[in-house]
């Protein structure tokens, strides 16, 4: 995994200027981000769901991997901040003309783009862009390979904080295909940073990355043991294409062993939160009755996701702008 | 055909909150809609073609069936009302990840979407969404299977009213593939509700639905008889793919029997209006000289279509918002 | 090549109302356009990069040929002028239903569109639209076949003027596939009109159009001779698909003979500007070190391109609006 120097994401005053990974960010900064998101939640409930914070700014959704759902949340967040939004599905455009990633992004920067929201199949792509391609554009990582999905992690943290409060008293289980999940990585880092004392990962051995212990988590291969008395269950989406790879037993077998059902959920605390980054596979990793049940906050997560993205975008824009002014004054 | 309880489309005060079908709507409501559209027509002629009625609202064009033309009219109408617009071509996105229609829409609702403009290949889809999926989001039917296309019908009504006035004195003929036309169904209902005493449908027997009489129309299999002395001719687009199905004779034969030409148009009243929902097939169902001729209002229909969609959107948003407040106060 | 009567692009007062080609435009008008673009450059540097000049106007990007890069620049320019923007990729929509170009555009006009930005594979398409289809909509040519790409030419002129000043003292070389380049044609016309005394085209005989002399240029088949002492080098993108056509030697051979490298660039003036319309093919027509080197203004061209498109759009909108009023008053 790419080492992420803390300063790359922060400006000279320690403010966020890119948002690439949870790794290396302080508890104070994550808490500030959650507080800011809290304040934006109220915007979504207004008759006029807009604030002028990014008015006249150009936000480019640069998606090298198709993801309508994630792109939509960033597009909405940007529009509610009054930004101008450009959607670029790169796989089907410039690179088909043989242009390099480097040239594509340099061109967008030359058009006076202020922010890139980047989704890429390769781990470290957003990091590479922020460090080597367009350091003066605020870069937001919207998912890079198996590496990180930090806005998803922060919306999960907002969900937990709003529904369970203090992280220092919680047991949180992350269940499923940890090996291929950028969400799991980012969530483990965020929970750790925010002081969660009991982070559990529950997965078959074949779906656990090497060195999982470095995250300070407890590993369980048995769902029924791992879920015991947890406050929060974060289910991961099962990438069905993994089935063919031989890493997994049959879909039915996976569901029997690792599926969250009313029966297995009963092993957690009685009011344990049920979370999932979506889109859910009903009957594959989660039972419909649980996904739609009273303990599920899956749709709340979507609502909080808009607020978190608004918070990330406005904070990074502020930090990046302040950095630019600082650099210009220094020159 | 799905039964549509009147109250599903209306709020506690009888205002429009969804717009799914003409069926069950009162003459007063249709007239109010036409009056509102009339007032928006003027907006399209201004230097600044915008009104702030939907500012800060999020309108999602959720198209399960590709239709650039219809999507464009709704997008423009929403933008002229100052809404934020999201275009979602669902066939190529989430459902390819196996997500259900239900989950896709619930997610959009959780993002605080205010309105769904829905196009779907299945009859009753918009109805299903409004009733069972997202009752608190205003749902506008932009065409569902062979069932209904109510905004097209209302723009046809606006065209007739502006160019011919009182519906109670008119003979209107609808010509072509009635069987597969959502436009025809919605138009028959709208004309009936608005008091049109002589609605004629003209089609070969193979392109007429069973039970067509229930609409209170007169059926003609001979174009030359049916067109006699009508005030308005509404041509339907011929879906060429029907040709292969054996329901139709050859394209040439169809044109000879049911095409609107200068010769057949001469059988109608001398100043009879020529209408078509577009896109037209020149030389298939209509002669170019007629489509572009002095009696044609085909391009006017397009202009009126923007105003009608602005009217539908603003009225449904008002009705839905008022319903939400009512429900919240009741709780 | 289509003859372009000067009056088609200009209104009754000689103001721009369409922007189809450089041909026939006066030096004064091109200079006014460059001056206007200069003033918009400042907008791109503001915190709020927006001016309200096109507020409430509807700009349709009507692309019959996919070009994300060009479409993006026009979309951004329109949004910074506060217009509502519709993107229509026509190849994948209406025309697949068999609708004619004529009907598609007439429909957009009926929706009260104010401006069409047109990209088309056929030479003369934008011209045809402005003359025969929608004369009352401002038509901007965003590239038509091998014919013209006038906004690219004007951004090239802005680049030269800002970095080298007076055109009357300059030697400018255009290098590469002149035969298939709409950029080359428009650039030769613009340079001529602006008074450039020494325009050189450098290409193999197989990539030169017949009658190239009519543009008042000097033709060179040898890059090393043609580059001698020029002030500006405009490289053209090599369309690799030409390779198969037998018009070109191998890619390696082309690079050896016509590639701009540090070695060949040294033959030009020591501070000669290096330009390219992008996207560049590194190692095909230009060496990476030259593209990224101190003499390259390739990314500046992109920045200026937004300002030039804002200038073209605002000037054409003004001219078209004034023409409409004039026509209405005359009636």
From TrEMBL, chains A, B, C:
The UniProt keyword set, sorted, is: Pyrimidine biosynthesis, Transferase
Q: Extract the Pfam families matched here.
A: OTCace, OTCace_N
Supply the SUPFAM superfamilies for this chain.
Aspartate/ornithine carbamoyltransferase
List residues of the Aspartate/ornithine carbamoyltransferase carbamoyl-P binding domain. 17-161
Q: Which residues form the Aspartate/ornithine carbamoyltransferase Asp/Orn-binding domain?
A: 169-315
Cite the binding residues for carbamoyl phosphate.
69-70, 119, 149, 152, 278-279
Give a yes or no for keyword Transcription regulation in this entry.
no
Q: Which InterPro entries match?
A: Asp/Orn_carbamoyltranf_P-bd, Asp/Orn_carbamoylTrfase, Asp/Orn_carbamoylTrfase_sf, Asp_carbamoyltransf, Asp_carbamoyltransf_Asp/Orn-bd
Catalytic reactions of this protein: carbamoyl phosphate + L-aspartate = N-carbamoyl-L-aspartate + phosphate + H(+)
Q: What class of enzyme is it?
A: transferase
Cite the GO molecular-function annotations of the record: aspartate carbamoyltransferase activity
Q: What is its EC number?
A: 2.1.3.2
Annotated L-aspartate binding sites: 97, 182, 237
Source taxon at top rank: Bacteria
**So, what pathway does this thing act in?**
Pyrimidine metabolism; UMP biosynthesis via de novo pathway; (S)-dihydroorotate from bicarbonate: step 2/3
Tell me its family. Answer: Belongs to the aspartate/ornithine carbamoyltransferase superfamily. ATCase family.
Subunit and interaction comment: Heterododecamer (2C3:3R2) of six catalytic PyrB chains organized as two trimers (C3), and six regulatory PyrI chains organized as three dimers (R2).
What the protein does comes down to: Catalyzes the condensation of carbamoyl phosphate and aspartate to form carbamoyl aspartate and inorganic phosphate, the committed step in the de novo pyrimidine nucleotide biosynthesis pathway.
Protein name, UniProt field: Aspartate carbamoyltransferase
Upper lineage is: Bacteria, Pseudomonadati, Pseudomonadota, Gammaproteobacteria, Pseudomonadales
In the UniProt record, the gene name given for this protein reads pyrB
């Amino acid at each position: 995994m790419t080492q992420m120097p803390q300063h790359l994401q922060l400006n000279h005053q320690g403010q966020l200027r890119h948002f690439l990974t949870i790794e290396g960010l302080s508890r104070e900064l994550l808490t500030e981000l959650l507080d800011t998101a809290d304040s934006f939640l109220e915007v979504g409930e207004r008759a006029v769901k807009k604030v002028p914070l990014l008015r006249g700014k150009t936000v480019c959704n640069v998606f090298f991997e198709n993801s309508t759902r994630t792109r939509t949340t960033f597009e909405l967040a940007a529009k509610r901040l009054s930004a101008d939004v450009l959607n670029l599905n790169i796989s089907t455009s410039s690179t088909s003309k043989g242009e390099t990633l480097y040239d594509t992004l340099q061109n967008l920067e030359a058009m006076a783009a202020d922010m890139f929201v980047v989704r890429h199949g390769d781990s470290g792509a957003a990091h590479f862009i922020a460090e080597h391609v367009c350091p003066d554009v605020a870069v937001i990582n919207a998912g890079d390979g198996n590496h990180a999905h930090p806005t998803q992690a922060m919306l999960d943290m907002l969900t937990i904080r709003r529904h369970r409060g203090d992280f220092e008293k919680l047991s949180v289980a992350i269940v499923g295909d940890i090996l291929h999940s950028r969400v799991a990585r980012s969530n483990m880092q965020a929970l750790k940073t925010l002081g969660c004392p009991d982070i559990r990962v529950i997965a078959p051995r074949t779906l656990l990355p090497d060195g999982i212990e470095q995250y300070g988590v407890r590993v369980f291969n048995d769902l029924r043991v791992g879920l015991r008395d947890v406050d929060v269950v974060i289910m991961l989406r099962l990438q069905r294409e993994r089935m063919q790879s031989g890493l997994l037993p049959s879909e039915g077998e996976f569901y029997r062993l690792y599926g969250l059902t009313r029966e297995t959920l009963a092993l957690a605390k009685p009011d344990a939160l049920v979370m999932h980054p979506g889109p859910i596979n009903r009957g594959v990793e989660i039972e419909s009755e649980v996904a739609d049940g009273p303990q599920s906050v899956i749709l709340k997560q979507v609502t909080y996701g808009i607020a978190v993205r608004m918070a990330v975008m406005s904070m990074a824009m502020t930090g990046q702008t302040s950095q630019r002014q600082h650099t210009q004054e220094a020159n």
